User: Which sequence fits this backbone?
């Protein structure tokens, strides 16, 4: 079978030291799913983006990418436009900043439908609604603006937009990072269906080995901007040749049905009493109560859109809520400045949570500047040690957020949140964009810090294995209500929804 | 190296000067004129005239226009002379630079500074602060400024330092439009997560403003600021006409320009010298401003 | 309910603003040590005549009382003098101009169409052209087009409107004879002549005001074009024109609309110099005459009216924020 | 100097056509009670008065019959009787009677109709008379029959026939004119009546069918229509008229051509011939506040006579002495009966700073004087001139600060304030009627200090006051003229003002405007005689 896409000797250089991608080659035939895995910052996104000519002007690209005989890198703007979204669709890694904030998601999907096809408006709308259904979103969200949607919902909007024209090649950059396992299963089904029905080829970038083994035919492993290994998934997973691939596979966390190890809880740090969050008339969180003690981690899992981020927003005082939330005995709304420094927050969307005009060192230093008297060299040293702790090279310190990879940005957010040795850490999907090796080290960091500082932690994640690894207790949120909470949620799920959740979890099968 | 902060303005200036030749040209223009203003006395001494002495011998007896072609430009009078008075135009322009430059710049600083602060406060804090700011902006915009100036001209004693008065008055009346533009920007900025992140961290409004909002406001602020300079210089002229401005015979560009408009037909040079000076300064600030904008935007180059 | 409350606050704010504006105008007016009754005193002006004129015009009372009388007149109307020569100004009475011998409201009504025509046309022109040039300058950053746009804008802001207007009349009106110079034709009379006669003033005003729009648009555009959602739009295969004209522009408009509101509002209060150069009988001229002629009634009327327009324009702008950017929706 | 008439040599105007008058002002007040219009300008087109002016080039202005004869006084100026011509009619066809003239004068006393020239009010013993609308008559005016009107003055007044030419002496149909906007539909007695009146934009005058040219010796009434276009920018008007196209050919500008425009017009031959410059005009002077130290010192004041630079002032006002007007040394303006030319402080036009310094030293100010304030009326476009004075005085170590004020604030300061703060002010005076009386009395009688008078030098000399009163009561024009000339000299000895120039006014008109001349007095074109040429 001849290749649909073949990338030859691709190198991308941003003029900042070493090239981001060097001499990458791979190919893809119709109906094939090629997974690209690799370390965070290894050049996966850059590779994908180069194919549609979407890299910033600061990037210099060399090599060839042949799609149906044409070199994508030397297409005229008009021809490239024809390819974009039509022959090749692309799902972006960070869905929360990928959508235009001033248009409704409906109109953005409709635009995707109409841009390559002369479809009447009404038909386009019908198609858009169909697409929304397909990705598991209710039709009434058609009129919602991006900021009114949860991270997972936005990701699904982006997927809907991308598959609108049934492209022959789908580039999906971490398409399921923000999705809980049940929804993830639906999306994977959708992709599989596209492949089976239309012979769509999928270039799947992911850190989730479960997804790889579930969907991919072949896998490309990248590290440090280079392809280190490539081959059929089964082969590579069963007999990895490269040490990096082996570490990668070894780092995969497995979900099992153990009881969680109950650690001794100190006095409650965070306490929620009948907390509800309403947007307009819509109740996103209703009547949630729980507490987290010193040194404890509560894992919060639940369907995409079930209100996890809303709850995190309420706890940090960003979202208006009713009920009572106390941090260390004090009502959230009336926290003093000093107390605020005791609460660390990792946002679900790393990009928008970083000031685009501040270097990452500045962003990490911000809490220190606000709450400590560290300045000058001491501050530098502290920032460097934080960067190091989250596995970021000190060379990145003077970069701006848009010059980092998704995973790198996410780690900046983590570094910032732990800079002040918090008493309470609220982490909203903090590892969703991290490859398993980095993720393992970050989780290790969190655990060791927690042992040391005994902070209380609310850990929101869709990755059940991660939750299991980290949490003392798990709460399951479903449509804004905590349906189940305790240490034995995974061992002995009581609720139907929890059971479904556990059943959908993917495992890496060699 | 010190703590890396959001690219600082001085750092950005040196960066842009090193890289952007247009911005460099703009800066050189501004600096040259600033120097001319500072050393106005030296320059006029070199030329040998002051801006006050009437000299009917430099005028054409039949018309009152400058004697000689091009508005009387000569080795003696570098820019020629003023019609009807024979005062030396070069001396007037360089001495006028003092008044106009100082007032234009200082009043701009006052009005933009005030506008940014007040506008950001209104947008970020919302609630009654916003309401009070919006209302007072409306009051200022709706208020007959001219009447106020006239009243001021009648009330303020002649001894009061005029330049200070002008800077305060022009600056103070200029804030509302900047404030409203900044407020609009802040209304969307404050919904961005990085601003929220700072708030969650316990950053005070001032800290949020300084580290999160301001760096993201440079674009519109620079536009408003660089374009406001000529406006302020023109306003100074209008106010001088109303008797609130600098007292005659102190020269100012604005005054020369408005006087010269009448003469364009017969003595265009009278307009051209101060006019070009004003244009040069404005252009200089704008070229520098555009360069700065680029330098302060880390995404400069952007997506293509 | 929430909307109603919002509307009421806003309306209350407007009234408050107008009251303050009127009050300040009053106070400031009385700061100037001169007497508006001088106008009606005649030459030579004897103290007796002056006192008579003052009494007739209502200037014999303390200023605060006059202010209250003025406010009362808005609701109840006013009468100046007594007997057959009395002048009635029926409610809503915003004062009676003794200088112009007319009800202020009527005067404003006469002048408004002119100013309105001038302002609307100019604003359309300057926003339209300004934004278009700004967008192109941003897209062709650092090219000659960009440089020329900058230089043009700078000329626009630094050249006095009066000069530009005068040159326009001289060159286009007399030398080339392409546009008519002379008097204003009402729209209702002859729309073509109306527009034709206003072309030059529109252009002059637009030239003077356009710079802000060019530069603001350019700067905002440069920022927006590097946002991620632009990348998304491009990845969808959206033509560049739509990327720019829809996705980017919409995100650029907030400050542009804000500035438009402000300038349009104040322009409606009168474009003094332009009206003067082009002999347009608009509100600006009325206001200036009132200022120089110490015509308090007209001054107050114009000021209140201009203030009203400013407040309304700004309110409209505030409301439009929500439409332009859902994140800036009013809370 | 050009002996030829400043005016038109072109084709003779004919009857018919539309004359356009481009006016800077946005108002045109055609209500006689409220108007300060000269007898030969706009108001005269619509309203006749008891007497009129005849002015011609090279001769002093004369009072001539208009509605009536020029008046007779049986008792040396205290009682004046005028007899109206036969068969005069208002524009509505009703006859004009002496009662209508009386009504018009009475009407000018009503507070609702203030603002006009009011020289008659005091003389008629107005006191607390508040006009006819309250049902009272003014006893000092008698109308024994419809043609005769008699004025009984409070004191002898030789210039009463001149006073009878001021706007208030225009007839208003008895019982009418109570409405505030009477000027928009005034009942006319002159050649024109108001056709359309568009506030702030345009006033169109059309023919008054009941005006009889045979009975009017001061009005030509040539054009069929006269259109005032209001609110025109002066510079634009000059440019338009210089371009001379379309309707502008039939137009003239009612405001002075500015120095810059003059310079430009000089360079344009086609336009230059259409610029008319008066031979003379208002006397421009620097008033010295004689009541405030150090200007209460005669020597100091005299120093000013030498310190000023009249030639710089000329150049600053119009570019050249030729266009600006001759330097002045007397108070009475040219074109007025009895004027004598003299110069008590002879020096070069540039002045003599050394002599000024010497006088100052004599007065006890060897180092000059500082901190003098010169107030300026902003609306008079005097900034450049004031600066010229400022620069000239600086040569003699006289340091002056210029404060320019809005017209009203200025008038309040100079004319109304009891205790004003200024030391100097620039001013110019154009008499309201062509008599030396109107030239001297308002400016130098001590009764005119403050309280609304124009004695801005606050000059008070009982001797002069007495002489003024005496001259005013002199009926014989020649005799009165001599007396005024003597007063002129006497005042100048006290040096309350420094006469600078007799300001020339320049006007420009379109090529089809004929008979556009400026006589010796006043320095304005005679609107009543202008016509359209073929
Ligand atoms: N605009 C840019 N300027 C400079 N360097 C960049 C830019 N964009 C990306 N990089 C760098 O290029 C490298 C590859 O980035 P890329 O986004 O492809 O990583 P990735 O493999 O997608 O990682 P992740 O899994 O974290 O998303 C990273 O080291 C990143 O810092
Ligand atoms: N500003 C808003 N206005 C209206 N609805 C909102 C708003 N923000 C969130 N929602 C809705 O509230 C619900 C909960 O959103 P939330 O972001 O808390 O979900 P989540 O559990 O974090 O989901 P995910 O895992 O996909 O991030 C969603 O249905 C979302 O569409
Ligand atoms: Mg990536
Ligand atoms: Mg979420
Ligand atoms: Ni994941």
Assistant:
């Amino acid at each position: 079978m001849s290749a649909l896409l073949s990338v030859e000797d691709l190198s991308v250089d941003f003029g900042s030291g070493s090239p981001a991608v060097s001499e990458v080659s791979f190919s893809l035939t119709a109906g094939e799913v090629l997974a690209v895995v690799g370390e965070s910052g290894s050049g996966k996104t850059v590779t994908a983006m180069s194919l549609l000519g979407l890299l910033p002007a600061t990037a210099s690209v060399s090599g060839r990418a042949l799609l149906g005989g044409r070199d994508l890198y030397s297409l005229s703007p008009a021809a490239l436009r024809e390819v974009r979204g039509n022959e090749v669709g692309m799902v972006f890694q960070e869905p929360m900043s990928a959508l235009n904030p001033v248009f409704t998601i409906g109109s953005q999907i409709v635009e995707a439908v109409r841009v390559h096809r002369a479809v009447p408006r009404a038909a386009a709308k019908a198609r858009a609604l169909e697409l929304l259904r397909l990705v598991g979103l209710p039709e009434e969200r058609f009129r919602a603006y991006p900021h009114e949607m949860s991270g997972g919902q936005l990701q699904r909007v982006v997927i809907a937009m991308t598959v609108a024209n049934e492209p022959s090649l789908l580039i999906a950059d971490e398409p399921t990072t923000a999705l809980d396992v049940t929804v993830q299963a639906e999306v994977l089904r959708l992709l599989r269906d596209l492949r089976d029905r239309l012979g769509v080829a999928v270039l799947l970038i992911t850190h989730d080995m479960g997804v790889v083994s579930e969907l991919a035919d072949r896998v490309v492993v990248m590290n440090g901007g280079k392809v280190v290994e490539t081959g059929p998934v089964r082969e590579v997973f069963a007999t990895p040749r490269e040490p990096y691939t082996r570490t990668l596979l070894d780092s995969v966390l497995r979900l099992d049905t153990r009881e969680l190890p109950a650690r001794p809880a100190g006095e409650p740090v965070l306490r929620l009493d009948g907390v509800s969050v309403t947007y307009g008339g819509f109740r996103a969180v209703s009547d949630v109560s729980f507490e987290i003690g010193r040194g404890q981690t509560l894992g919060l899992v639940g369907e995409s859109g079930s209100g996890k981020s809303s709850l995190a927003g309420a706890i940090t005082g960003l979202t208006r809520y009713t009920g009572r939330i106390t941090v260390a005995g004090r009502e959230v709304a009336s926290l003093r400045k000093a107390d605020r420094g005791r609460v660390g927050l990792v946002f679900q969307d790393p990009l928008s949570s970083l000031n685009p005009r501040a270097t990452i060192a500045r962003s990490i230093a911000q809490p220190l500047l606000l709450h400590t008297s560290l300045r000058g060299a001491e501050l530098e040293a502290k920032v460097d040690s934080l960067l190091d702790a989250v596995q970021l090279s000190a060379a990145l310190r003077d970069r701006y957020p848009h010059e980092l990879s998704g995973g790198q940005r996410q780690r900046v957010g983590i570094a910032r949140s732990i800079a002040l040795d918090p008493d309470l850490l609220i982490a909203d999907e903090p590892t969703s964009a991290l490859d398993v090796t980095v993720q393992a080290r970050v989780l290790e960091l969190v655990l060791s810090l927690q042992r040391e500082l005994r902070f209380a932690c609310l850990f929101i994640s869709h990755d059940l294995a991660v939750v299991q690894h980290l949490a003392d207790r798990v709460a399951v949120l479903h449509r804004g209500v905590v349906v189940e909470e305790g240490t034995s949620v995974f061992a002995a799920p009581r609720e139907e929804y929890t059971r479904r959740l556990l059943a959908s979890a993917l495992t890496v099968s060699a | 190296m010190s703590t890396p902060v959001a690219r600082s303005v001085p750092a950005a200036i040196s960066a842009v000067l090193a890289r952007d030749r247009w911005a460099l040209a703009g800066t050189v223009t501004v600096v040259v004129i600033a120097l001319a203003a500072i050393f106005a006395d030296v320059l006029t001494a070199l030329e040998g005239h002051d801006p006050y002495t009437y000299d009917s011998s430099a005028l054409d007896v039949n018309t009152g226009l400058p004697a000689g072609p091009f508005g009387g430009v000569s080795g003696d009078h570098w820019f020629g002379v003023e019609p009807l008075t024979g005062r030396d135009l070069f001396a007037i322009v360089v001495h006028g630079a003092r008044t106009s430059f100082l007032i234009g710049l200082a009043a701009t600083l006052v009005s933009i500074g005030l506008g940014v602060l007040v506008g950001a406060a209104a947008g970020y804090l919302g609630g009654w602060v916003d309401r009070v700011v919006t209302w007072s902006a409306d009051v200022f915009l709706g208020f007959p400024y001219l009447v106020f100036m006239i009243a001021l001209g009648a009330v303020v004693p002649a001894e009061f330092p005029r330049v200070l008065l002008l800077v305060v008055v022009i600056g103070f009346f200029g804030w509302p439009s900047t404030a409203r533009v900044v407020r609009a920007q802040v209304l969307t900025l404050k919904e961005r997560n990085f601003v929220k992140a700072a708030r969650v961290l316990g950053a005070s409004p001032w800290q949020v403003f300084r580290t999160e909002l301001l760096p993201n406001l440079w674009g519109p602020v620079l536009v408003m600021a660089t374009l406001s300079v000529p406006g302020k210089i023109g306003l100074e002229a209008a106010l001088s006409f109303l008797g609130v401005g600098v007292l005659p015979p102190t020269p100012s560009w604005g005054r020369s320009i408005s006087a010269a408009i009448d003469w364009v037909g017969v003595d265009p040079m009278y307009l051209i010298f101060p006019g070009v000076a004003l244009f040069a300064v404005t252009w200089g600030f704008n070229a520098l401003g555009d360069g700065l904008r680029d330098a302060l935007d880390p995404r400069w180059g952007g997506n293509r | 309910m929430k909307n109603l409350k919002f509307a009421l606050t806003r309306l209350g704010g407007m009234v408050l603003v107008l009251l303050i504006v009127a009050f300040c105008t009053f106070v400031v007016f009385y700061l100037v040590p001169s007497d508006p009754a001088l106008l009606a005193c005649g030459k030579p002006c004897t103290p007796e005549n002056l006192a008579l004129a003052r009494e007739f015009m209502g200037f014999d009372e303390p200023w605060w009382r006059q202010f209250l009388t003025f406010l009362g007149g808005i609701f109840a109307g006013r009468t100046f003098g007594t007997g057959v020569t009395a002048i009635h100004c029926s409610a809503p009475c915003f004062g009676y101009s003794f200088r112009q011998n007319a009800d202020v409201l009527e005067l404003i009504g006469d002048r408004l169409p002119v100013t309105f025509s001038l302002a609307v046309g100019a604003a359309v022109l300057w926003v339209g052209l300004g934004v278009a040039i700004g967008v192109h300058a941003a897209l062709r950053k650092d090219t000659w087009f960009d440089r020329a746009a900058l230089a043009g804008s700078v000329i626009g802001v630094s050249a006095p409107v009066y000069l530009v207007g005068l040159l326009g009349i001289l060159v286009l009106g007399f030398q080339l004879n392409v546009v008519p110079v002379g008097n204003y034709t009402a729209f209702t009379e002859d729309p073509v002549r109306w527009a034709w006669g206003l072309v030059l003033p529109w252009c002059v005003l637009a030239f003077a005001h356009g710079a802000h729009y060019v530069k603001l648009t350019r700067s905002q555009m440069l920022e927006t074009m590097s946002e991620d959602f632009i990348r998304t739009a491009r990845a969808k295969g959206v033509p560049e024109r739509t990327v720019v004209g829809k996705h980017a522009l919409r995100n650029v408009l907030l400050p542009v609309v804000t500035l438009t509101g402000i300038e349009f509002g104040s322009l409606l209060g009168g474009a003094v110099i332009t009206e003067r150069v082009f002999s347009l009988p608009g509100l600006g001229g009325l206001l200036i005459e009132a200022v120089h002629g110490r015509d308090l009634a007209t001054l107050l009327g114009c000021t209140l009216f201009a203030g009203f327009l400013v407040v309304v324009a700004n309110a409209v702008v505030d409301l439009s924020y929500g439409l332009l950017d859902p994140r800036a929706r009013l809370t | 100097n050009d002996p030829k008439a400043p005016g038109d040599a072109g084709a003779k105007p004919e009857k018919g056509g539309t004359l356009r008058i481009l006016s800077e002002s946005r108002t045109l007040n055609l209500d006689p009670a409220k108007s300060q219009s000269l007898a030969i300008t706009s108001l005269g087109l619509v309203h006749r008065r008891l007497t009129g002016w005849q002015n011609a080039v090279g001769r002093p202005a004369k009072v001539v019959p208009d509605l009536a004869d020029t008046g007779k006084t049986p008792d040396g100026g205290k009682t004046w009787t005028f007899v109206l011509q036969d068969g005069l009619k208002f524009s509505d066809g009703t006859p004009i009677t002496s009662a209508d003239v009386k009504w018009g004068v009475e009407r000018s006393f009503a507070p609702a109709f203030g603002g006009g020239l009011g020289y008659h009010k005091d003389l008629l013993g107005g006191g607390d008379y508040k006009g006819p609308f309250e049902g009272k008559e003014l006893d000092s005016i008698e109308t024994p029959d419809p043609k005769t009107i008699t004025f009984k003055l409070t004191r002898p007044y030789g210039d009463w026939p001149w006073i009878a030419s001021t706007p208030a002496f225009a007839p208003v149909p008895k019982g009418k004119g109570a409405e505030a906007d009477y000027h928009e539909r005034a009942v006319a007695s002159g050649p024109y009546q108001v056709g359309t009146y568009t506030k702030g934009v345009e006033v169109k005058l059309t023919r008054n069918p009941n005006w009889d040219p045979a009975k009017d010796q001061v009005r030509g009434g040539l054009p069929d229509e006269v259109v005032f276009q209001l609110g025109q920018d002066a510079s634009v008007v000059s440019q338009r008229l210089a371009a001379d196209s379309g309707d502008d050919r039939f137009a003239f500008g009612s405001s002075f051509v500015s120095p810059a425009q003059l310079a430009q017009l000089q360079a344009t031959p086609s336009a230059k011939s259409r610029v008319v410059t008066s031979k003379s005009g208002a006397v421009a002077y620097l008033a010295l506040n004689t009541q405030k130290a150090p200007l209460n010192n005669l020597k100091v004041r005299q120093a000013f006579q030498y310190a000023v630079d009249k030639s710089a002032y000329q150049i600053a006002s119009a570019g050249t002495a030729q266009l600006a007007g001759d330097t002045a040394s007397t108070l009475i303006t040219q074109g007025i009966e009895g004027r004598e030319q003299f110069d008590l402080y002879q020096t070069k036009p540039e002045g003599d700073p050394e002599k000024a310094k010497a006088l100052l030293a004599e007065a006890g100010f060897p180092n000059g004087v500082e901190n003098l304030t010169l107030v300026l009326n902003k609306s008079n476009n005097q900034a450049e001139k004031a600066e010229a004075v400022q620069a000239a005085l600086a040569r003699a170590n006289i340091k002056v600060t210029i404060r320019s004020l809005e017209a009203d604030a200025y008038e309040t300061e100079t004319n109304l304030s009891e205790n004003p703060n200024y030391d100097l002010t620039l001013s110019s005076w154009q008499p309201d009627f062509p008599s030396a009386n109107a030239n001297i009395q308002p400016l130098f009688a001590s009764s005119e200090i403050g309280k609304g008078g124009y004695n801005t030098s606050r000059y008070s000399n009982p001797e002069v006051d007495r002489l003024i009163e005496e001259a005013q009561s002199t009926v014989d024009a020649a005799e009165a003229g001599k007396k005024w000339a003597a007063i002129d000299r006497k005042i100048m000895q006290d040096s309350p003002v420094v006469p600078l120039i007799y300001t020339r006014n320049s006007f420009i008109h379109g090529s089809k405007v004929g008979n556009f001349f400026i006589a010796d007095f006043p320095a304005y074109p005679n609107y009543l005689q202008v016509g359209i040429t073929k």
